[in-house]
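pipeline stage [seq->struct] | target=Citrate synthase | organism=Escherichia coli | residues=101
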Amino acid sequence: MADTKAKLTLNGDTAVELDVLKGTLGQDVIDIRTLGSKGVFTFDPGFTSTASCESKITFIDGDEGILLHRGFPIDQLATDSNYLEVCYILLNGEKTDSGTV
């Protein structure tokens, strides 16, 4: 569990403690999964402040124009790597030694 908590007060009296999770890259996130059991949900028009999943492969920051796969910028992978090299990076998390793929 997370050591850091966020406290949300509902209707002025019911406090809900939510875990704050550390992002691998980017901002920390508040785990809101328990809100449904309290009879409330979040509303985020445009899905702009909501992470839909956890990924150990991909990082996206649309506002900054950042798309990383395994820590490598997508444009770098597209211009500097061939198909097999990208597959190796996605599967193993690192570049291969030159000429081994």
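stage status: PASS
auto-comment: The mean pLDDT is 85. The beta strands are 4-10, 14-21, 29-30, 58-61, 66-69, 72-73.
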